[in-house]
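Action item from last week, closing it out:
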Amino acid sequence: MFPLTLNLLFIFTLSTPIAGWAALRMNRQSLCGVYASVGLAASGISLYYLFSQVSFGVVSYSLSVGLFSANLRIDMLSVFMATIFIGLGLAAAVYSIRYMEKDTGLPLYYSLLVAMVSGMVGVVFSGDLFTLFVFWELMSISSYVLVGFRKEKWEAVEASLKYLVMSAAGSATTLLGMSLLYGMSGTLDFQGLALAFNQAQPNAWLYVSLLLIIAGFGVKAAIVPLHTWLPDAHSAAPSPISALLAGVVIETGVYALCRTFFTAFLSIQIQWFSILAILSLITMVVGNLMPLLQNDIKRLLAYSSIGHIGYMLVGLVVGTQLGLTGTVLHIFNHALMKGAAFLCAGAIIYRIGTRQLDDMAGIGRKMPITATVFAVSLFALIGMPPLNGFVSELIIITGSFQANMAWLGIAVVLNSVLSAAYYLRTIRTLILPIKSEKIERVKEAPVIMLIPICIMAGLIILFGIWPDPLISIAQQSAAGLFPWWSGG
């Protein structure tokens, strides 16, 4: 049997269309969103049971159906990541109740949203690469459809097709890399890979599989130059889906790289450290230069997500528990910061019907709550104290200095300063004098949309002022990689 969390997610994925049909019959289609939100909330609550179990060690599950066998290996890192996915998924579902009310096909929308969260949770619960790949595809296929959900708009169709082609190529590349690993080790189990390659002599096939894995997972993680699908997909998707794509989907790629590298590629650490160090530098630079050229608020935020992926890769390259703690913590913080930013941008777009920054001048004077939360999230993304982004970036920078990779830490600092240029430009736009009659008539976002973004803003401030509990959990999560590294 699967753990209760996954079972609940699967049940609500399959039953949401039925709930949606009943809601349409009652002419209350908003109830479909409520039903999906209840399902995500219930699965989130069930994580507490898993958390209490993994506090004492790793929990394993196995399910065999015919030729298919799914092996789950759940540790603190798995539960921590699942909490992020379900939490942001719940925020997006609640927000969507009002944001998507004028759209048709909402039962499909909410079912796919829960399915995407199910796929991400399955990825972090997986105990072997094959199970991970199955859940990876569930996450991917759901996200393709959600990006192009508003199919009446050509922009959404084009972005979804581009995302589909690039991501499918990445999945095929990953599968080929996994096949080579299986051929060399005879297993895809993470523990088995750690044991097989711990003392292995490097060979050409191991290097080839390394490059294939980086390329395959790198597409989803939006590592430059494999990032070109991301700005189109994030800007064309409905804003709640943009929040999920930027806040957790691309981070799933970072998780997959962490889990794979600290098992299968133990004998060639120096080589993949070097490759990822260069890619992390290029990724953060491109991710912070491109937003300077953007006038579309969602494209600006999308490109900035690429920059933060570069920061996360620095912690992975450092390879110490401190560096990985910074990466894991920044995944959590980025989900809050970027999720809140996209939901705030969506609220503004919901009211004025445009994504162009020039058309938003003075909107903060008419939407003060939304603008305040937006500013808080953007300041956090810059890395300003006492907000949560400062804490995780500081840990990553400290880890790089301790590991004698000061140049990467300095790169993170310089890129954070560079990011202030476009984030502060956005904040300035919100508080400019109103020059448009259209802006004069704007009202604050609906309450049901304000609830999740205000809660997220509160958490951004809370975990900036009092990060100790979160840092402790992130340390335990990062430590879960090291027993496999040593063959444990």
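Closing note: The chain is about 75% helix and 5% strand.
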